[in-house]
Amino acid sequence: MEKKETYHILEDDKTTVLTKKQYDQLIREAKIEVLTEIFQTCYQEDSKTRELVEEKLSKLRQ
Fold first, then answer.
1. Which of 10, 12, 30, 8 lies closest to 20 in space, CA to CA?
2. Across the chain, what does the average pLDDT equal?
3. Of 20, 38, 55, 35, whose CA–CA distance to 9 is shortest?
4. pTM metric for this prediction
5. pLDDT tens digits for range 31-44
6. 21 burial class (0-12, 13-18, 19+ CB within 10 angstroms)?
7. Which of 20, 34, 43, 47 is 20 to 30 A from residue 5's alpha carbon, by CA?
């Protein structure tokens, strides 16, 4: 019998069990959210940083 890889997330005193695919999707969405925040903060301040963040976001959204 093949053992499935699972992840246990503790949140508000309850545990949520996620499959690897669900966990990977959650991490991907978190990365997009963080990069979006960085992008919004740096948009006007530094064009080099903006370009880097735009590149990373486009790769994550694919």
1. 8
2. 80
3. 20
4. 0.58
5. 888 888 877 776 66
6. exposed
7. 34
